[in-house]
Structures are given as structure tokens and as C-alpha cells.
Amino acid sequence: MMLRLLVLLLAGILSGHALADEASVKRGVETRFAGIKVESVTRTPYAGLYEILVGESLFYTDDKVSFVLKGDLIDARTQKNLTEERQQKLSTIRFEDLPLDLAIKQVRGTGKRVVAIFSDPFCPYCRNLDRALLKEDDITIYTFLYPILRAESPDKSRTIWCAPDRAKAYYDFMLSGREPAPTPNCNAPVEKWLALGQKMGVRATPTSFTTNGQRILGARPDELIKLVGEAGK
Question: Which of 2, 57, 56, 48 lies closest to 25, judged by CA?
């Protein structure tokens, strides 16, 4: 019983020291780099480095903030990009928080694999991703129109959303360049799309999310399909 109490006491002391170290590193970074707002500081198991999160960027420093390392941290044994893995974890969302009623839904086959994609109608990379996903069966694609690229993006998104068949209008325009017929007296949730993208931290299109909340930036169909399949298991 006494040994157990000593172990618990020691763990508490070590935890307190770790918190104090992280707090002092945070103060040191914000003191040395005026104007920087540090979101979090996390001690890593790598050579005494501390991970510093500023906005969406990661960098590393020592406990005295005597140097700063900006770049990818690679595990030499496994060749894993530790920085990229950490950024992926930090950028995950709760898929169930997505208001799917604001998305264009397309179901192919059983639809058992599910993905949500933020897309601008004038985004060439979105077009490439849509074309690559055409060959995928048993998938459900929720497309959130995210009109941020051009001045005419909101109007084009509104016309697509107001079409009798939204999915057909979207894919006709993206894959074949066929213009959707204008529909009068229709309100599209443009402001809600923009607010949602900002809330989810979407900075560019396409940005995709798997059902476990993992974020995939850009048109990377092979990686996306792999991650969508893993998330659905």
C-alpha cells in the first residue's frame, strides 16, 4: 500500500514538472517572438523537443527556446513523417457535425463507403478528383459547395443547388462543362456553406473528410479512396 502511494505521488510530481516545463516553453516562445499566439505546447519523445502549435503550423524547440526547428520531423527507423501524422491528427473533425442536408448527395452501388468533399465549381483540382472518383462503386459522396475561388462562384453554386436534380447539374458542369438551367425564386445556402467551411478550417478546395474525421487536402484520389475504405471498416 505504501509503495503504491509513493508511485502515485512520484507520478504526480513528474506530471507537475512536465506541465511547468510546457508552460515555461510557451512563455519563452511568446517572449522571444513578439506577436505570436501559441495554441499549445507538447513535449515530444524525440531528443527533448517540444512541439509548438501556432495557428495551423507546427514547429519545434528545446526547453530553453534557444533554437527553433521549422520543417518535417522524420522517424529515421520507420521513415514516417511524424509532423504530417501529427498535423493530420490535429486537423480531424467530427464527421457527425457536418450538416449533410447542405450537401449534394450521390450514392453509387451500396454506398457503404462515405466521404464529404468541399468543392468550388471553378476548381480544376475538384474536377480532377470528381473524374477520378467516377470509377468508384459502393460509395456515397456528399459534396459541399464552397464558392471561394471566383467572384462568380456563389452564383454558379446557387444555380447548381437550385436545379431539379442537384447531383446531375453538379456533375454535368464539373465533368462536361454543361451549364445548369437558371431557376428563378430559389434561395441557396451560400452563407451557410461559407460559414461551415470556415468553422471546419477549410482553406482550399478540394478538401475531403472521411467518416472518422480525417482531412485530405487536394486532389489525391488514391490516398482518399484508401482512407475512406479504412474509415468504413
Answer: 48
Taking the CA atoms of 12, 16, 17 and 21 in sequence, report the sign of the dihedral they define. Answer: positive
Same domain, 75 and 115: no
Last residue of a domain, one of 62, 90, 118: 90
Quick one: 73 and 139 in the same domain? Answer: no
Question: Would the pTM count as exceeding 0.70?
Answer: yes
CB 91 within 8 A of CB 183: no
Q: Sorting pLDDT into bands at 50, 70 and 90, what band is 205?
A: very high
CATH number at residue 46: 3.10.450.70
Q: Domain check: are 123 and 224 in the same one? A: yes
Q: pLDDT of 26-46, one tens digit each?
A: 998 899 998 889 888 999 888
Q: Are residues 100 and 186 in the same domain?
A: yes
DSSP H or E run through 61: strand 57-61
CA distances from 214 to 70, 98, 106, 200 (A): 24, 13, 20, 12
